[in-house]
Amino acid sequence: MEDLLKFEKKGIPITIIGLPYVGKTTLVNWIKDEKFTRPKPSIGVNFEQIEIGGLILNIFDISGHKSYRSTIWKSYIMTSVGIIFVLDSSDKDHIDEAAKWFWIIVDDWLKGRYSDKVILFLANKSDLKNSLDVEQIMNKLSLTKMSNYSDLSFQIFKTSIRENTNIDYSMKWFVKKVKQLVELQSIKPEAILISDTSGNVLTMYDPKKIVEDPDMFVGYLKALSGFTNELLGHEKFKVIKVEPHFYFITEENQYNISIAVSDERILPEARRLSFLIFHYIEENKDSLDSKELNRYVHTLFS
Q: What domains can you pick out in the chain, each with its CATH number?
């Protein structure tokens, strides 16, 4: 699991999901070999590393059975740069179930927490006579609501892997958007300060020495955050500008994380790092060691 929490030097994490028998593994095999196959249904997680458009993608093809949807889907989705959601456009009996899980991903898992993602929605099996058209699919799944999510790059394509309909075109769009997002995420923040709710600094990453007195500065940011809470109500995430930097401040589970960035465009990357650090803290809450936390923070920048 630790490998999923950061970019590997040779691969960008991508998750392919959807209900069973929609063509997820068939899609992976087509991307890899450019030919249609009839693979056995996936059990658990299949992994392929494939180079497309100059990018090396670590593709995690995850089973769509209910037990996997309610357990491992979330971890892979939250730590991936891009998500490919595959739907059987001819299976009218399960479209409501597909819609439910799509909006669990967007509204419950990504919204406001970790929403800088690329989502490619493939309405597969369009070669079948009883397949729904794009407008019907968008209406049944309320996909027009995706326009409300400015941090999510989203597109829907009606495809047929069997007949190679729109596969090339959809993957070109996906790779282009993933590349743009990765380029932004490669611009690292200026500093990270992690403290407890009392204002005690637990660890700090500040290679450019922008913070002269960490304890005093954490207290200053805490005061600004409290003032913002009084004005706007308490929010887990907030952005405060202290010239010449923006500070992305997160408060959760008795810990505060303040991440300084020099450019507004890097704020989504600050949110990503914040999520990863809190995930690490939660995983190690029973034996959290400041030295290990400091080591982990530094690995996020290596």
A: 2-185 (3.40.50.300), 191-299 (3.40.1840.10)
